[in-house]
Amino acid sequence: MAGRLIEVFLPSERLELARSSVSGLMITSIWTEKLSETHSQLHILTDSSSSEKVTQALSATLEDTLDDIHIVCLPVEASLPAGDSSSGVISIEELKQDVTEMVSPTAATWILTLLSAVVAAAGLYRNSVTILVGAMVIAPLLGPSVGLALGMVHLDFKLLGFSAREMVLRSIIAFLFAFVLGYFITADPSLAEIASRTAVSPSDMILAFASGAAGAIALCTAAPSALIGVMVAVALMPPLVTGGLLLGGGNAGWTGALSLFAVNLLCIVISGMAVFLIRRLRLASS
Q: How far is Cα 164 from Cα 271, in angstroms, rounded to an integer?
């Protein structure tokens, strides 16, 4: 079972109120612990699909004293007895935390972006799909793209700002590298892997829509994001690097490549928003 242990640190006089607020929800186990003369701890074991409802109920009931209350949600690898299998859906708090970590501005993510651009450029020069797939596995643009979608749906302007900043920064890193490389080593625009990324086609848009939806679903269900990142990278990194290579070499095809990148990014964000919105409506109606 994909479980969650919710720890609530609160004043002792609010303990029973907090406990009663979640009594009607799907809870595996609940117990209390006295921490001091004035404060107690409430332990709630539930599955991942119910954790958001539990935290929402606690926040709504204790909103007048939230300054003196701390709610922590921890993943549970296993518990006995095992209980029924859960749907694997994670809470909005966990979802935002996961995406926030993916868009954190660190030297490691910028280096990975550069390495992804290096591998993508090698694949384009050699006209090799296999090498391009290697660049897609790194998937540095997955976090910012789904972060934009999640931030817009939940009106989280802080997350939206972080995601937009990282999308711009990581795109600039990849594009500038490709531009400099293309200036010194001219890319052949007739190569199939380059030529196919210099114009927008309906199939590219379908791929981008599917990629955005898959990335959002993977995050909502706590599925491994590495393979989903490949789909998102397929739509973003190759056309971005293609645009840089062609512009550096003075080829007019760079405008088509950047147009493809922009259209694909828009499609990914829109489809991601649709998934997050459906998820939000389903939780609200249940």
A: 17
Cα(217)–Cα(209) distance, rounded to whole angstroms? 12
197 Cβ contact partners less than 8 Å away, ≥ 6 residues apart: 238, 239, 242, 256, 257, 260
- Report the side by side order of strands in the sheet with 3-11: 29-34, 39-47, 3-11, 70-76
- CATH class, domain 3-76, is alpha beta
HEC per residue, 170-182: HHHHHHHHHHHHH
User: Which amino acid belongs to residue 42?
Assistant: L
Q: Rounded CA gap, 247 and 249, in Å? A: 5
Mean pLDDT computed over every residue of the chain: 86
H helix runs in the chain, sequence order: 15-21, 51-61, 92-102, 107-125, 129-138, 142-153, 157-184, 192-195, 202-220, 225-248, 254-285
Domain boundaries, the chain: 3-76, 92-285
Which residue do the tokens 């489809």 mark?
Answer: 271
CA gyration radius, the chain: 23
Give tens-digit pLDDT for 258-273: 999 999 999 999 999 9
